[in-house]
Design goal:
four-stranded mixed sheet; Ribosomal Protein S5, domain 2; 13 strands; alpha/beta; single chain
Length: 218
C-alpha cells in the first residue's frame, strides 16, 4: 500500500494498492475485495464470519471479521475469556458486554476469539456491528447468508449509530453484488437517494433488531 502524504493538486488522503509480480509492481484492479475469501453459498464455514466495509483514505475495503465462541471456556481463567487479533481489546470487550446486557446473549461462560482476516488492524468503529454479528453467528451456530454486509457503530445501550461516509461504503457492497446491507436506522433516509440496484438496505435501531432481522427466521 502506497500512501500519498502531500499532493499539491489533489487530495492528500489517497492510497494506492499494488502487488508484486514477476515483472514488478502493478496496481491491484479491484482492491475492495483483496481481504475477502471465496466461500461457497450457505457454507457452514460462514458461521461466525461477518463482512463490513472500512475506509483507508478515499478507498473502501471489504473486511471479514471472524468469531469463535466456546462454551464453557476450556481454560477456567479470565485471561482467555476474550482473545482478539486486529481488534482493539477494549472495544471488543465492550461489544461482548453490550451483547450480554442489551441483547440478552448468555455469553458469560463463553471464551470468545475474534480475528480480522488479512491482518487488518481496526482503527474505526464502522466494524462494530460486524463484530457483534460474527459473535452472534458463532454463539447461535447460525451461518450468516452470503451476500450480507454490516456497517455501523454500537453504543453502550445496544443502539446503532451511523458512521462517516456511509453512502460510499454501502455503494461499494452494492457494486460488488451484495444482496443485503444492515445499517443503523438513521442512515436509511440518507441512502434512499443512492442507486443501490437490487440490494436491500435493512435499517435497525439496536442489536436486538439485528438479531431478529438476520438470525431469527420464524
Amino acid at each position: 500500500m502506497l500512501r500519498a502524504v502531500k499532493n499539491r493538486f489533489g487530495s492528500t488522503d489517497e492510497l494506492g494498492v499494488f502487488e508484486m509480480i514477476q515483472l514488478g509492481l502493478r496496481a491491484v484492479p479491484n482492491a475492495c475485495e483483496i481481504f475477502i475469501t471465496e466461500q461457497p453459498t450457505d457454507s457452514e464455514v460462514l458461521t461466525g464470519t461477518a463482512v463490513t466495509v472500512l475506509m483507508d483514505g478515499s478507498r473502501t475495503f471489504l473486511i471479514e471479521i471472524q468469531a469463535l465462541c466456546l462454551c464453557p471456556s476450556p481454560i477456567p481463567t479470565s485471561s482467555v475469556d476474550l482473545q482478539v487479533n486486529g481488534i482493539p481489546p477494549k472495544r471488543a470487550t465492550m461489544i461482548k458486554c453490550v451483547l450480554i446486557k442489551q441483547a440478552g446473549l448468555k455469553l458469560q461462560e463463553n471464551a470468545v476469539f475474534l480475528n480480522v482476516v488479512g491482518g487488518w488492524k481496526l482503527a474505526e468503529t464502522a466494524a462494530d456491528l460486524a463484530v457483534a454479528a460474527a459473535i452472534c453467528s458463532s454463539f447461535m451456530e447460525f451461518p450468516i447468508p452470503k451476500g450480507v454486509a454490516f456497517i455501523g457503530e454500537v453504543g453502550l445501550g445496544g443502539e446503532l449509530r451511523t458512521v462517516p461516509r456511509i453512502e460510499k461504503r454501502v455503494n461499494t457492497v452494492a457494486k460488488l453484488g451484495y444482496r443485503t446491507c444492515v445499517v443503523p436506522k438513521q442512515a436509511v433516509k440518507v441512502l434512499e437517494t443512492e442507486g443501490l440496484g437490487n440490494m436491500t438496505v435493512i435499517g435497525c435501531n439496536n442489536l436486538k433488531e439485528v438479531i431478529h432481522a438476520i438470525f431469527i427466521t420464524e
